[in-house]
Structure formats: structure tokens, C-alpha cells
Batch of 3 targets.
Target 1
Amino acid sequence: MISDIKVFWQQNLIDGDTRHFPVLSERISQSPLEPYDSKDHVEIVSSLKNNFKNRFKGFNEIATVAQFFVSPLMEIDIQQFATSVTQNFSEDIVATKMELFEQTKNSYAWVMA
């Protein structure tokens, strides 16, 4: 969704629509004799989009792990969880499964108490 917004902003800039960029709008209105060339600003937005995409691409890969920490009592596929942990955090798969099993058992015992 974020990438869709930035593509939308890029198209706005290409079209000369600067409503999402108030400082830019103000500068353009202060210099009405100079034509506005959106090329540099479109490149900046494109670069920001690519940087954002690269910086956060790993979040999809650890979604299962992150969701578990948000809600440790949720039902999960232990194999999928352990595989995600081993691939992304260089942990031993057997140890991860055992630790997850122990944590789950302890969490349910705590809830039932």
C-alpha cells in the first residue's frame, strides 16, 4: 500500500500537481515565471520508494515470528515457525522447536492457573 501511495505521488508530480508537497507548492507560486520541471522531484520520490522497499523487505519474511511475539497464545504451525526462525536468525531448527514447545506449554499453564 505504501508503494502505491508513492507511485500516486510520483504521477501527481509528473502532472504538476504538488498538493501533497506544500513547501514545493509555495516555492512554485513564489516563482511563477519559471516553469516547474518535476524530473528531479520524481527521481527523489522514486529513490525514497526504492529505499523503503529495500529497507523493509525482510518484514514479510519474519511475519510469522513477529506475529508470535505479538500474540504468543495464537495457534501456529511449529514447522513453519521453526523454519522461519532458522532461516532468518541462524538458529538450530530442533532447538527452536523445543523452545517453542516449552514456551507454548508454559504459556498455557500460566493461563490455566
Note: The CA atoms of residues 61 and 84 lie 7 Å apart.
Target 2
Amino acid sequence: MARVLVVDEALMMRKTIGAFLLKAGHVVVGEAANGVQAVLAYNLHRPDIVTMDITLRGMDGIKALDKIINTDASANIIVVSALRKKHKVFETLQHGAKAYVFKPFTEEKLLSVVDEVLGATAAEQRKARSAANVMDKPLPARTYHSLGNKAAEKWGAYISNKAGGN
């Protein structure tokens, strides 16, 4: 899953976005409350995705977006903002944002945009999440037989190590 940096002036919004992303299997590698923190956190963590509000104290989201894109032209930045003015949406996309999500938003909307920016459909992401859940469970006995002894032993060792059984 993706490594994400969440940038928003409001702590509650950062926590909400972070919770949605964590629930979907992503990892929040950092949070920032302003543009300066966002640029520093981006350079430190090099996340796969950034969610960025526009309205930030000091350096606003568009300036932070510019600085990040100038450092890394392939940065995946999703603007998440309550500003619904067409010129602001256009401006952020022109400056390199990959998508724009209006506040308020639903969990499904945010995750579908994240999936789209990551280049995967929501169905592919759900399939990957389901597979990840299966990976934490021991295999049924009939599967051990079809895998062969070596593969079954490796799977058993993987599950045992994951459970702390070394």
C-alpha cells in the first residue's frame, strides 16, 4: 500500500484523512500543518501520495505544491480543499497536482481518488487488501499438499515468525 503525507492546518482533518487511509491499508508517514512543514516532511519521507490543503498559514498549499514539484516532478499530490472556485482547482492542477477533492468528502471518494492517482482501480485495491488479510492466516491442510513440502514449510515459518514464534 501507499506511503502518505497528510497536510492540513486542522488537526481533526489530518486525523480524519489519516484514519481513512490507515483503514484502507495505507501508511501515514507524516503530517504537516503548514506549507513549510509539508515541504520538509516531503523531502524527509518521500511519500507515494500527499494530501494537501490549499489554505495553510505561512506558505500556502499552492506554494508548497510548487516547491515539492520543483524538487520531485513525479510527486503525487492530491489537493483536498473546501475552496470550490474553478480558478483555484485549475491553478492547482496547472502547478502539478494530480487531483482535487472538495471538502466535505466521503471516505469512498477520497480512497477512490487515491487509488486512481496510484494507477489502480478500486477493485484492484480491494483485491490486494483481501489478499493481504489472507496472508496473515495459516494455509488449510489441503493447500500444504498442493504446494509441496518446501513451500509449505516456508509458509509455516513465515506465519510463525510473523506471530513472534521465531
Note: The chain is about 55% helix and 15% strand.
Target 3
Amino acid sequence: MPLESQSRDILNSFRYGSLNAEFNEISFYALKSDATYWKLKSHLAELKSKIKELRKSNGGDRNRPFSAENKARIVKDPLVVKTKGAPNTSLNKGVNSRKCEYCKQDGHTIQKCPSKNGHVTSVATLAGP
């Protein structure tokens, strides 16, 4: 980005912040009563239309910091991804059966595996009636 463009962006950001601060203070005082609120609202509508006309006569939104052309250059924060901790096991909420790591059968664990200990019995007798 050329130095001229950077200087212009900095100037525009400063101007935007300055106008924003002024408008916040004006809004604070205008909200104190209904009369001041409606008076400010009508003055702002007039001012907005005058500024739009002035911008049209001066060539549009070329230097506007938040125009559609400049939005593509704004870098946004990355999405936050949870990477620490144990994986979520809520997918198997209804299924809470034991599975043996040795014989890969359901109904018992490796500590009581009949195949490992030499006692071969059916899974149906291990699970019970």
C-alpha cells in the first residue's frame, strides 16, 4: 500500500473517530427530553441529505473507509476452534454397552474376557437373562 493511501486511511479513521465522539456527546444531551431528540433527528436528516448531495457532486464514495470496495481488504479474526481436552462423547448417550478390547465383543471388558482367560462362553450367558 503506498504511503499516500496509508496516510489517507489514517486520516479517514481519525476523522471517523472524531465525528463519532462528537455525535455520541450530542446524542447524550439530545436524549434528555423528547423535544431535543426530535429536533436533533430532524436536523440530522437535513444534514445527511446535504452531505449526500455534496458527495455526489464531488465524485462519490471513493475514499470512504467502509465502502463495499474496501470491505474486501478488512482482515477478520479467525474462527475459534476448541482443540484441548477429551473429545465429546455425547454422541453415544443412549448406548452405554461395554466392549472388550481383546476379542471385540460386547458385554464384557478385557479384565473379564473369557477368550483371554481360557474360559470360552457365549456372550448371552455373560450378559445375563
Note: The first helix runs from residue 3 to 30.
